[in-house]
Design goal:
single chain, three-stranded antiparallel sheet, globular, Collagenase (Catalytic Domain), four-stranded mixed sheet
Length: 174
């Protein structure tokens, strides 16, 4: 799900730890648990691997974080953060926990399904070079998505990506 109320965040590169995933310049896990989740996602889901490969050929940088769920939160969200000095667009994917799966370890499959869904949203943004502001981000999703609740938009492609990941996870190792 993309949340249309996009806030431009300031997250300097120096404020985060250096992670092994830095070889993938576009994907920036916010902590080691998220880094491990992404690595397991690549091993367990061809779809996640393909989405990350496609992302590596874009001008988009995506930070990925996990946070406890609050009332009203979705399973995940993606928002526009801004543009770096090098012209790359920065996005934030948030994976929310829920009662019974408040940590990544308790909910790997659910988190991976949500990650696949949100990475498809990231690629939707990457495909449109005109998305350079929070306003353009919101307008883009209002134009292509299904607004099912005020400022909450989803797309068919993201729903399909999530279902593909779920199917891959249920069928065992790829």
């Amino acid at each position: 799900m993309s949340v249309l109320v996009a806030t431009v965040l300031s997250l300097p590169q120096s404020a985060r730890p250096v992670l092994a995933s830095d070889a993938l310049a576009q994907v920036r896990p916010m902590d080691r648990r998220v880094e491990a989740l992404i690595a397991r996602g690549v091993m367990r889901s061809r779809t996640i691997g393909k989405l990350l490969d496609e992302l590596s050929r874009t001008d988009v940088v995506v930070y990925v974080r996990s946070t406890p769920r609050r009332p009203g939160d979705l399973a995940g969200s993606m928002g526009f953060m801004g543009i770096g000095a090098d012209g790359r667009r920065w996005l934030m994917v948030t994976l929310y926990g829920d009662e019974g799966w408040t940590t990544l370890e308790d909910a790997e499959d659910r988190q991976l399904i949500t990650l696949g869904h949100e990475l498809r949203h990231v690629l939707e943004v990457a495909a449109d070079p005109g998305i350079t502001t929070a306003t353009a981000f919101a307008a883009f999703y209002r134009a292509i998505g299904d607004e099912w609740q005020k400022d909450r938009v989803d797309t068919q492609d993201a729903r399909i990506a999530g279902r593909q990941v779920a199917q891959e996870l249920s069928s065992g190792p790829q």
